[in-house]
Amino acid sequence: MSEQEDQEAPKQFTFGTVGFDARFPNTNQTKHCFQSYIDYFRCIKAKGEDFVPCKQFWHAYQSLCPMEWVERWDEQRENGTFPAPI
Question: How does it sit in the membrane?
Fold first, then answer.
């Protein structure tokens, strides 16, 4: 192998998901998904988008929630019809 080929070696992908949350011990993570979505937007509303602990909720709902749900919830938030207070 040439030196250039060594430098262009692809980076290894690391797959990660949200860790265990004792509030949601069952295998069905629907409630965890929804609660993480709500918690994220409550957190950034209270502390701002740059508040690092809010990212934990973001990672959780991005990992657990189907994107179709997130898109629908985003639309509902924009329209003021989201079913939970944020």
Answer: Peripheral membrane protein
